[in-house]
Amino acid sequence: MEKTVEKIFTEEVMQFFNEKFLLNGDHKKLGDFENYVFEVYQNESPYILRLTHSSHRSQEQLNSEVDWVNYLFDSGLKVPKAHPSIDGNLVESLLVDDGSSFHASLFNKAEGKQVRFSDPDFSEKLFYKWGQTIGRMHKATKLYEPATSIQKRPKWDEDDLLEVDRYIADDEVIERVHQFLKDLNEIPITPENFGLIHNDIHSGNFFYDGDTIQVFDFDDSCYLWFASDIAIPLYYSILGRFPKEKQEEKINFAKTFLHAFVEGYQTSSSLPENWDKHLPLLLRLRDITLFTVLHKKIAEEDRDKQVQNLLVELRARIVKQEPIVNIEEIL
Predict the structure, then answer these.
(1) Which is nearest to 198 in space by CA: 60, 72, 48?
(2) What pTM, to 2 d.p., does this model score?
(3) d(CA 64, CA 166)
(4) Residue 159: other Cβ atoms inside 10 A
(5) Which of the ends of the chain has fewer CB neighbours closer than 10 A, N or C?
(6) Is residue 116 part of a domain?
(7) Are residue 252 and residue 136 in the same domain, yes or no?
């Protein structure tokens, strides 16, 4: 979390939202990168309280997110339901002294556990279920129309992380990104290849009980090509498991992962039009957004060796205009 936000996140902020959602005050921090995420308790039952600063998302954007999440829940998808406050609001807001705001929503705690790259469950069975889950989500979402009172989720090119000039002083990267965005905008948009997607379903954003995947953290959801929800699981699974120099191992794993994932996806939905042709560009898009968010969220003096090495790796691929893996080698 940015230091400017940390300074104004006080106990009084937590107390306000505790009262709005009838929480008992006990809480355990689970994350603080883009949002503050806590495990909290209501009548001894665990829930997840997420607090978002207005510099990250507006109240209208958050309302549109929880509206879609609850639509998916009501459609039978395994996602955490958002619950209303004592005032009946799915998103509560608090204005703080500097004129900015914090927004909060309360969700069911997901069932199951996170699967780490080293776990035995990180296997073809999981990859199949992963694809199947995303296929179900895409199929359900094609029927979703937000009410006129709900602002639509943003389109992919409204993401401030694509405004690289704001966060990165690197002319070569900026030039490559500007050209890349022109290329990406040339991909045709049809109802079968483009729509509202989660846009961040890596293994840290779902729990697994050995049979069922429960997806959470819809903060990055936007209108984008459906194939991005295939690219991102592949991207982070490769990034998390393999150093950049282990090219042969990376390719072999990517083949195994993508085959099982796509097989699972097809049990729930037809594959997006030209998904395989779009995959390289969408893998490159994730390099760019990850590169930018690391610059935005982590001050230079706070970057450890791991972050520094990752930034070097990401920059090299952006400049070379290469995806993390050659799709032609794994299909």
Answers:
(1) 72
(2) 0.93
(3) 26
(4) 18
(5) C
(6) no
(7) yes
